[in-house]
Specification:
By secondary structure, this protein is mainly α. Helices cover about 55% and strands about 5% of the residues. It contains 16 helices and five strands. The strands form two sheets. The chain has a three-stranded parallel beta sheet. Strands 4-5 form a two-stranded parallel ribbon. Helix 4 crosses helix 8, helix 4 packs across helix 15 and helix 10 runs antiparallel to helix 14. The two termini are about 45 Å apart. Bound molecules: adenosine-5'-triphosphate and magnesium ion.
């Protein structure tokens, strides 16, 4: 079986370091491994409109921002088809058919949708389009026959819903669709990266993000203001590492070589330390004597090690926006060709392919003649 990857992001803001560790970093690695037959990455503008219906300009402006973040992070349009969801009308048609395969109570049980409804304060006035977005996501995945979906942990219920739709479709209409598997980050800190405010999830909608395109002074200001351990009041106090967002980010980004390269961060006027690993740094923090500011300076350097080259690449792509749109247009064309092939198979299986079915017409002619 072909190995096909699909994943995407909502253009509700620029991409942040949560997206990077939760999915984007992995996509680039998978792309460069050369082991996959087809890779699709898409900008989910139609999905973003489901909860931003009165703000189309926000969605429109963020399509290019997300595309620039992709290119900056290393997605290569030669290897990865990058496209915009709304430009593939086949996806709407698939969603429409899949709606018959899912019950309202099943949708109501989706824990991520439940949390998001609460977060957005929809109460009773949930747009139907938002409520049903797991179905539309199943259309996005199955249209490309994707079997590998690299996403963050919050997407697990969506993948389960997609798998159920595939099983139901195939059992009713025949084996057309492919069941997707979720590919979660290996590092547990990356499953659901918390926000700089310590809240459970860094999210564009919560305003607690470090963006991939933030200038370095903004990154430093955000790191400096980060939530740590509220019990670590004096430098000499023992500190907690668990639930301390600065350490969670280090778990997600720090590599052993950083300790040699950024050793200066731990040289202070009053105290100096030498660490060779994150475990040694954590042990010292737990024991007390290590100030938050030193750890934050180190985190800043570690983040910049990833962000600075991305910023430089982004600045280059920003110089030629028409070329970025042209890349997207070509991606949409390629994506549409694949989605319409799947849709034709779906229509055949569902027996709504009247004009392509010569047998149906001849059978019925005979039937009526012989009446
Ligand atoms: P919104 O608030 O508009 O939903 P978002 O920040 O949740 O935006 P999405 O576009 O919904 O971002 O998610 C895109 C991808 O990034 C998904 O694969 C999701 O699992 C992953 N992701 C988003 N936030 C995080 C996070 N904090 N940690 C790990 N992965 C994340
Ligand atoms: Mg989200």
């Amino acid at each position: 079986m072909k190995k096909i990857i699909l994943t995407g992001d909502r253009p509700t803001g620029r991409l942040h370091i949560g997206h990077y560790v939760g999915s984007l970093r992995r996509r680039v690695e998978l792309q460069n491994s050369g082991e996959y037959d087809e890779i699709y990455v898409f900008i989910a503008d139609a999905q973003a409109l489901t909860d931003n219906i009165d703000n189309p300009e926000k969605v429109r402006q963020n399509v290019i921002e997300v595309a620039l973040d992709y290119l900056a992070a290393g997605l290569d349009p030669e290897k990865t088809t990058i496209f915009i969801q709304s430009q593939i009308p086949e996806l709407c048609e698939l969603s429409f058919y899949y709606m018959d395969l899912v019950t309202v109570s099943r949708l109501q049980r989706n824990p991520t949708v439940k949390t998001e409804i609460k977060m957005r304060g929809f109460n009773e006035s949930i747009p139907v389009g938002f409520f049903t977005y797991p179905i539309s996501q199943a259309a996005d995945i199955t249209a490309f026959k994707a079997n590998i979906v690299p996403v963050g942990e919050d997407q697990e219920p969506m993948l389960e819903q997609a798998r159920e739709i595939v099983r139901k479709f195939n059992s009713v209409y025949g084996p057309v669709l492919v069941e997707p598997e979720i590919l979660l980050p290996e590092n547990s800190a990356c499953l659901r990266l918390p926000g700089t405010d310590g809240k459970a999830k860094m999210s564009k909608s919560l305003g607690n993000c470090i963006y991939l395109s933030d200038p370095s002074d903004v990154v430093w200001a955000k790191v400096k203001g980060m939530y740590t351990d509220p019990g670590h009041l004096q430098v000499s106090d023992p500190g907690k590492v668990e639930g301390n967002t600065v350490f969670t980010y280090l778990d997600a980004f720090c590599r052993p070589e950083h300790f040699g390269r950024f050793a200066d961060c731990f040289v202070g006027k009053k105290q100096s330390f030498t660490f060779n690993s994150l475990d040694e740094l954590k042990d010292q923090y737990r024991a007390g004597g290590l100030g938050d500011m030193m750890v934050k300076k180190f985190l800043y350097e570690v983040l910049e090690d990833t962000l600075a080259p991305m910023r430089a690449r982004r600045a280059m792509f920003e110089q030629d926006i028409p070329a970025v749109y042209e890349m997207l247009r070509k991606g949409c064309e390629r994506a549409r060709a694949k989605a319409s092939k799947t849709l034709a198979e779906v229509r055949n299986a569902m027996k709504i392919n009247y004009f392509d079915d010569a047998e149906l017409i001849s059978q019925q002619s005979e039937m009526f003649k012989n009446k």
